[in-house]
Every structure is written in structure tokens, then in C-alpha cells.
Design a protein that fits this description.
alpha/beta; globular; 9 helices; eight-stranded mixed β-sheet; 26% helix
């Protein structure tokens, strides 16, 4: 008699976003994000119950532009607590695409489990023609159920592809393939219920990081200042009054005007240099102000995530510089 294979138990943690959006039937714009509950969401995915035993948790139900660090911390704590249960095999987070990459990177640095953790979303609301949410959710659960997904850090599954949380970004305002891996590309693909990995993340993540959010309720404030021609350097002074650290979205390899430089050199809070360019790396030799910190190849929004965690750990400048090399 053939032995029946036990299905994995996957917990879906819903946060809202377009995947849970509702609008006029058939339309792709003008919808209300976060209008469908986690339980209703999984009902839209045919055959999902054959992939895994599903349990749902509604963390919040918001547009992802309204995600906060308090929600991040709650999400990470929930995962860390539930991962201790030997009956739980993996996790899927449904999320809006606007800030999906930031949430994924935060979790990549703060969750403490090797069990698969997969983030997904959609570009079309549930009421649109050819909504992409059901397929993305089905594939995310498939990856979370895969033994090969364990130990690879937080993953993002979108439109047949698997990405590392550190490299993933939103690259289009409307394409169904709007989530991409940039220069790093995809780690693997999902095809007909099978998971294929071809690459492995190299940077430290999850259980190998030093970040512990178990005893904090909020993160330090970090703001991003975007440089452009004639950008008012007074923005830096203003941002500094509201911030524990600043990220500069510089031009090219993290560059900015002499006026910006004169203000930055006077600031007494950590300043990390990133770039407004989609791909590339910032290294020490690029730095116009030597007291600043090179953001490696992290885009401004992800550099802000890492700097906030570093400040929460009371890292000094040399330790923050090392964090941007390690993570």
C-alpha cells in the first residue's frame, strides 16, 4: 500500500495590499487595498488545500504605504514565536507591493528561524480581470512547503520567480512582473507546482544576524533625503532635526552638491550614502564626505531599514560601516 505523504503546515500572515484589494469589477485601478480578509483570500485560490494545510493570521489589513515599523516588529515576533512549534513548517506573508521589499528585508534581518518564510503580493486587485494574486499566493505556499527553501533567508515569490529579500525590488508601476531581483536576478523559479533553485543568498540573514527585536517596540527614526539639481541643502538640516540617522539618495555613485557636502560634514548623526540609480554599488572610495557610510548596493529604502536596526542596537560608526558590508 502506498504511503500517504503528510502535507506541510503553512501559516499565512496577511497584511493587506493590492492582493486583498477590491474595486469595480474588471478594473485594475481605483480599488481599495486591504479590503479582503485572509480567510476570504485563500478561498480564491483553487487547489491551495492540496498543497499544504493552511492556517491564517490577520496581522493588519492596510495599503502597504501605511505599514509601520511597529507592524514589522509584530510580524517578526509572530513568526519567531510560531516557528518554535514543530508542527509548523513554513510561513507566507501577503503584502502590498509598494513597500514589500522593505518588509521582506526587515524580516530577513530579524526573524530567527531556518523555516521557509515567503512574501508575496499582486499587481492587480482581486476583482480585476486576470487577477495575479491567486497564482502568486499558490506559488508562495508551494515554495514555503519546499524543503529546499529552508535556510535561504526570507524569500519573495512573484510571477513564477523566487527572489532573495535583500535584492528584491519593485521595478514597475503596473507590470505583472513588477517585482524583480535587479542585478542579482532570481534565486529560482516555480513551475507546475515544482520549485527549482539555482542560486543561494550570500549575505548574512535570519539566524546568523545580530539583530534582536524581542525587547523593542519601535525603531529609531531614519529619513531619506533625495538629491537632485538645486536640491535645497536646508532639507538636510530639517531632516536631521527629525532623525536619528539619514540616508542620502545621491546621484550616480552617491554624489551630491558642495552645498549638500557642507551641511553633511556638520551633522552629528550617522549619514549613509546610497544612490537614486537602480543598480550599482557605493564603496568607500566613492564617498565625498569621509565621515559618511557607504551603503554598498542597498537602495535608499533598504539602507534605511538596516540603519534603523543598527541604531536600535546602539552601534557606533565603525560598527555601522561593518553592518553595511555584512548584511
Amino acid at each position: 500500500m502506498e504511503k500517504k505523504i503528510k502535507k506541510k503546515k503553512i501559516i499565512i500572515l496577511a497584511t493587506g495590499g493590492t492582493i486583498a484589494g477590491v474595486g469595480d469589477e474588471g478594473k485594475m485601478a481605483g480599488y481599495k487595498p486591504g479590503a479582503v480578509s485572509a480567510e476570504k483570500l485563500i478561498e480564491t485560490v483553487p487547489g491551495l488545500d492540496s498543497v499544504a494545510d493552511i492556517e491564517t493570521r490577520q496581522i493588519c489589513n492596510v495599503n502597504s504605504d501605511d505599514i509601520t515599523s511597529e507592524i514589522w516588529i509584530s510580524l517578526a515576533r509572530n513568526i519567531n514565536d510560531m516557528a518554535k512549534n514543530p508542527e509548523v513548517d513554513g510561513f507566507v506573508i501577503t503584502h502590498g507591493t509598494d513597500t514589500l521589499e522593505e518588509t521582506a528585508y526587515f524580516l530577513n534581518l530579524t526573524i530567527k528561524t531556518d523555516k521557509p518564510v515567503v512574501v508575496t503580493g499582486s499587481m492587480r486587485p482581486s476583482t480585476a480581470i486576470s487577477a495575479d494574486g491567486p497564482a502568486n499566493l499558490y506559488q508562495a505556499v508551494t515554495v514555503a512547503s519546499s524543503e529546499n527553501a529552508a535556510g535561504k533567508g526570507v524569500l519573495v515569490v512573484f510571477a513564477d520567480r523566487i527572489y532573495a529579500a535583500r535584492s528584491v525590488s519593485k521595478s514597475s508601476t503596473y507590470h505583472l512582473t513588477a517585482i524583480s531581483g535587479g542585478e542579482s536576478g532570481a534565486l529560482g523559479v516555480v513551475r507546475d507546482g515544482n520549485v527549482y533553485f539555482y542560486n543561494t543568498p550570500e549575505k548574512c540573514h535570519t539566524v546568523s544576524t545580530e539583530f534582536d527585536i524581542s525587547n523593542i517596540d519601535m525603531l529609531p527614526k531614519v529619513n531619506v533625503v533625495y538629491f537632485s539639481v538645486d536640491a535645497d541643502p536646508g532639507l538636510l538640516d530639517y531632516a536631521a532635526k527629525l532623525s536619528d540617522g539619514i540616508i542620502i539618495a545621491g546621484a550616480g555613485a552617491g554624489e551630491f552638491s558642495e552645498q549638500f557636502k557642507s551641511i553633511i560634514e556638520k551633522l552629528e548623526i550617522p549619514v549613509v550614502i546610497s544612490s537614486r540609480v537602480n543598480d550599482g554599488i557605493i564603496i568607500g572610495d566613492n564617498l565625498i564626505c569621509k565621515k559618511t557610510i557607504a551603503g554598498d548596493n542597498l537602495p535608499p529604502q533598504k539602507a534605511a531599514v538596516l540603519l534603523r536596526l543598527a541604531l536600535a542596537k546602539n552601534m557606533d560608526i565603525s560598527q555601522i560601516k561593518n553592518a553595511f558590508l555584512v548584511y
